[in-house]
């Protein structure tokens, strides 16, 4: 079986982001050259209970190849049952265990970044994914600790489970999304293990990606918030292009395409869901503040489309 992921060149990976990286968003990003796309975080519990909403979250666009589903869970038994369900779904190339989500409800549930405080538990759950999954790849997404930084211990624990690669957000759970990213910690993890390491955290342009790859010697970068409102960032990374070289006409085309894909996938409710994406897309434009105020009251798709048409005007 040929391997779908080639680690010989630095990879550009879309990070899983709850509420953002749904199928429409991933399909737009894929078009711009993201090497790997990952689903939003899927609750193992919801999956085991066959929640229709959760099963829909797993659906992928035909262009997503390779495609990885990320799950969160707090016990080996629950995670095993979730993996067995995913095994029966075609088109999934790997299963990623979330060991990094800092959200209080995930943490208090005993999953996400909670696992970084109990590496034995992390190993037993991650080993369970590896043992039962029939997919080509098993991976983990981690941070560098809960309150204290223990990057090397985490990297070794993950490697011991036989995973194919690990993605590291260079902050502790306590650091949330505001503390400075510790690229030294990512570098130390890369040096401590023989599996590929993907660097994540505050990588928002080509210059930063290049600097992080050179400094940490990581095998790729993972971009999450840097792609919201700027899905063409993957194209910029691959082609070494500056922001100013992305035309306004192309931006407008992408916003409309993303909007249409959101409506197609989510139905009428997609209009309301798309508001927050328009907040990001409109950043830096003249009149963005007023535009946001107006769209916050729009739930009719055709009215929203007219607003997008008139606001993102390349003239």
UniProtKB/TrEMBL annotation:
Keywords: Flavoprotein, FMN, NADP, Nucleotide-binding, Oxidoreductase, RNA-binding, tRNA processing, tRNA-binding. It catalyses: a 5,6-dihydrouridine in tRNA + NADP(+) = a uridine in tRNA + NADPH + H(+); a 5,6-dihydrouridine in tRNA + NAD(+) = a uridine in tRNA + NADH + H(+). Its EC number is 1.3.1.-. One of its GO terms (molecular function) is tRNA dihydrouridine synthase activity. It is an enzyme of class 1 (oxidoreductase). Gene3D superfamilies: Aldolase class I, Putative flavin oxidoreducatase, domain 2. Its cofactor is FMN. It comes from the Bacteria. SUPFAM superfamilies: FMN-linked oxidoreductases. FMN binds at residues 70, 141, 169, 224-225. InterPro entries: Aldolase_TIM, DUS-like_FMN-bd, DUS_fam, tRNA-dHydroUridine_Synthase_C, tRNA_hU_synthase_CS. Residues 14-304 form the DUS-like FMN-binding domain. Catalyzes the synthesis of 5,6-dihydrouridine (D), a modified base found in the D-loop of most tRNAs, via the reduction of the C5-C6 double bond in target uridines. Belongs to the dus family. This is tRNA-dihydrouridine synthase. The lineage of its organism: Bacteria, Pseudomonadati, Campylobacterota, Epsilonproteobacteria, Campylobacterales.
